[in-house]
Specification:
The protein is an alpha+beta fold. The protein has one domain: Ribosomal Protein S5, domain 2 (2-Layer Sandwich), CATH 3.30.230. The protein contains four helices and four strands, in the order H-E-E-E-H-E-H-H. It starts with 9 loop residues before the first helix and ends in a 5-residue tail after the last helix.
Length: about 120
Amino acid sequence: MKRANRLSRSRDFDAVHRRGRSVSSRFLVLYWLPQDEPADPRIGFAVPRAAGGAVERNRIKRRLREVWQKRLERVPTGNDYVLIVRPGLVEAAETNGFDWLGERVDELLEQTGALAA
């Protein structure tokens, strides 16, 4: 994923989390905040320790980055996003597969209005 499409600074994460709006599902929470100057959409991933060990957390982040990359051209410009993983997603994603994970992300993006239903 390109650097222009990633949230990397702590203050950017905090701004989206504190001032943004959110939607959630059983396994994921998505916060979004309009950017000050519209640009390409940026995303950051937060995977807490409760989701599993370091190996599992890094694996799910890689998969989520790939899911996001495939949807990037359909996501409108002008928003920053933070996707937070809830406990249980790692096991569910391993059981149900990559396509299932993509469907969970699509559900949240549809709730934000970023993707057409």
